[in-house]
Write a structure and sequence with these properties.
five-stranded mixed sheet; about 55% helix; globular; Trna Endonuclease, Chain: A, domain 1; 5 strands; 18 helices
Length: about 375
């Protein structure tokens, strides 16, 4: 080991990079472990109440709805009714996680610590894996996918393969949907198939993934603080919000980085307005790239979701505005999903900002937030 007197500049750079990487890994694991244990404990308490709650009969099917309302009012993140069911499933699927609790958390268990905990299941986890491996090496998002697997052998298969290959959440989902378990069962060369899958698998990045909605809500970080790594994107969106409001055509600001749930996936809409003249929602998406049909397809999905889930009686169908920027090029496209009435479309075109005005605004903002070489400030 080199002494301080002999350390050179390259050593300093390398050591700083190494320690930064190591501590980021530790931070990521610590946050994910805390999140997993919190959700497991929520499931534990729900299970315990269902087993011996003094007034559980009065709640019945309303338990999850009432509990969700109370916890949401208390500003606990990700405690909607659907998630509470998932936390209960996490607890019942992995009761052995009790063995990973710290003395402080163990002390928070009910006086009868075996409530809801089957001793046989707690003491005999998967023969290949221990509970500590699962909670320390897999994020809560990994476990949520595993909990959805009802067949125990199949779930254990993906536990092992995921840990062995250090899979990302996206890779785990892809392999489940690709019927990897079933293909492995039918294969006469299981090791060869496994090696092929692992060689091509996307690895998890060992960093604190603050883009994960579970993580940043658990930490109390506002979405706007973490969803925009690009200074260019943040600057344009901040000004775009004011730009649309100042047009004076009835825009009322509702949300920035509006999170919506489609199926089991969370998505974020950059800006959401309500137009008091058109009586509809206006969804705005910004892409720092050239226009692609994937972009407009995504925006149409958001518009359709808003039409089905959010639109109230008396509202008109929502409209989407897609803004694409690439160097000196700016493009605005409108998504009018499900609008067949030409007169109705014309009304939207009359009240919404002109496409040329938006494109001019985007071009101006790009020049303001970029330095001469084209890189963001």
């Amino acid at each position: 080991m080199k002494t301080v007197a002999t350390i050179d500049f390259d050593d300093v750079v390398r050591r700083i990079i190494d320690i930064n990487a190591q501590l980021r890994v530790q931070a990521s694991r610590a946050v994910n472990l805390s999140l997993t244990l919190r959700n497991w404990m929520i499931g534990y308490y729900i299970d315990a109440f269902e087993l011996r709650g003094s007034n559980r009969a009065d709640y019945g099917d309303q338990l999850f709805a009432r509990l969700s309302n109370e916890l949401t009012t208390a500003r606990l993140s990700n405690c909607d009714k659907r998630q509470l069911y998932r936390y209960l499933r996490l607890f019942r699927t992995y009761p052995q996680i009790v063995g990973t609790l710290s003395p402080q958390l163990t002390g928070l268990l009910l006086s009868d610590a075996t409530v809801g905990l089957d001793p046989a299941k707690v003491m005999t986890p998967s023969p290949q894996l221990g509970a500590s491996q699962l909670v320390s090496q897999l994020s809560y998002s990994h476990l949520e996918l595993l909990v959805d697997i009802d067949v125990e052998l199949k779930r254990q298969f993906f536990e092992i393969e995921c840990l062995r290959g250090n899979w990302s959440v996206r890779e785990l989902k892809r392999q489940i949907h690709s019927l990897y378990f079933e293909r492995s069962g039918l294969s006469t060369h299981k090791n060869r198939l496994s090696n092929l899958v692992q060689d091509q698998a996307e690895k998890a990045v060992a960093t604190l993934n603050v883009r994960d909605p579970y993580v940043f809500e658990f930490l109390g970080i506002k979405p706007a603080e973490v969803m925009h790594e690009s200074q260019v994107e943040a600057a344009i969106l901040a000004n775009l919000q004011e730009f649309l409001l100042e047009l004076g055509h009835g825009f009322c600001f509702e949300a920035r980085q509006k999170r919506i749930l489609i199926g089991s996936e969370h998505y974020f809409i950059d800006l959401v307005f309500y137009h008091r003249i058109l009586k509809c929602h206006v969804l705005v998406e910004l892409k720092l790239a050239e226009f692609s049909h994937d972009n407009i397809g995504q925006l149409n999905t958001y518009v359709s979701w808003y039409k089905e889930k959010i639109m109230l009686e008396g509202d008109n169908p929502p409209v989407g505005i897609l803004l694409c920027t690439h160097k000196n090029h700016a493009l605005a496209k409108f998504a009018l999903a499900g609008m067949d009435n030409q007169l109705f479309v014309s009304k939207y075109q009359l009240e919404l900002p002109k496409r040329e005005d938006i494109e001019r605004f985007l071009a101006d903002k790009l020049r303001e937030v970029e330095v001469p070489d084209g890189n963001p400030q």
